Amino acid sequence: MIDMFTDILMVLEFMRDKKTKFAYIMIGSVFANLGIQLIVAFIKNFRLGWRKVLKEMLIVLACLKPGADVFRVTSDTKVEVGQNMDPTTGEGQRRMGGVKRRPFTTIAQ
Question: Count of domains in the chain?
Fold first, then answer.
């Protein structure tokens, strides 16, 4: 959500400085990013029904997707029947070599 806020601030800054070309490029990149995330949310959940698809799309549009993904990965949320991808599909570590997650430990241990 903060990232979207800073993007909006940059667009306003570009417009103020009469650099509209950069502002339009920034707007295009924001909408392209949202579009790709919406497509992935649809592909991932379309077999679970429209209610689940709309819920996931609202999470994307509210810019809460990174937080929702972190919660799902750290809480070991299982794949629902009919879901095309598990919550860790976008996790970079998994794709780069299967880094194992260690259980949480405190410094005192």
Answer: 1
